[in-house]
Specification:
Number of helices: 7
Shape: elongated
Structural class: alpha/beta
Radius of gyration: 20 Å
Order of helices and strands: HHEHHEEEEEHEHEH
Largest sheet: 5 strands, mixed
Number of strands: 8
Length: 225
């Protein structure tokens, strides 16, 4: 049976809040040979390749503890999904040179949206973590309507600038300060429009991908990690 060469399509759902932060910070690189652990092992192998930029199947097997046949199967799947690619052979020592493997930058993309009290920003990163496009707007106490207008003005040009295939966007990260709906000194009239707003429902028509929302400080820490 032929496997699809496209990434697994994201499913819409409620925004994933800060309680999932630990799973996004995980750097665990140990695989498991237990049955029906394919998805976990797939993510583990992809993480190894991402951290090393360029590696070999033998090195991945040594680092994860997975068997060479399992690694061959997983890397084959990742190549078919367009997430990794071969990069020549490693000529070192005797024997058959090992095949080098690296990330495919266009294999997947992520969108980051910052909604702060003095500016709005949007950025698109590829699978290698390279910023492909970025846009900002200085605005004090942006209302929900201001945010929608900003996304409407900047998203499509950013996708074009970054040469981004929309079907390869895996998700959107939204960074907002805590208590954005609280009254603050010198805030502009209308900022209380955030009271009771469901951020995921507000943004879904313009950003139709899985959404991850966190406060701005935690989002910055996750980005560094």
């Amino acid at each position: 049976m032929m496997r699809s060469t496209q990434p697994m399509p994201p499913e819409r759902g409620p925004a994933i809040e800060a309680h999932s932060r630990d799973s996004r910070l995980s750097r665990g690189l140990s695989g498991t040979n237990l049955e029906r652990a394919g998805d976990y092992n797939l993510r583990t192998v992809l993480q190894v390749i991402r951290l090393h930029r360029e590696t070999t199947r033998i090195a991945i097997a040594n680092q994860t503890g997975l068997t060479p046949p399992t690694i061959a199967n997983i890397t084959g799947r990742l190549i078919e999904m367009g997430l990794i690619r071969t990069a020549g052979r490693l000529h070192r020592g005797r024997g058959q040179p090992a095949l080098k493997i690296e990330l495919c930058p266009d294999g997947a993309f992520g969108i980051g949206l910052t909604i702060d009290r003095d500016h709005l920003a949007i950025a698109i990163l590829d699978l290698c973590g390279t910023v492909r496009a970025r846009a900002t707007r200085e605005i004090a106490f942006a209302t929900p309507d201001d945010v929608l207008a900003f996304i409407g003005d900047t998203l499509e040009p950013a996708l074009v600038e970054g040469q981004v295939d929309r079907s390869r966007v895996l998700g959107v990260g939204v960074a907002m300060p805590d208590g954005v709906d609280r009254s603050l000194p010198n805030q502009t009239r209308g900022y209380d429009a955030w009271n009771g707003v469901d951020t995921a429902a507000l943004l879904a028509p313009l950003l139709p991908w899985p959404m991850y929302r966190d406060n701005d400080a935690a989002a910055a820490a996750l980005g560094e990690a």
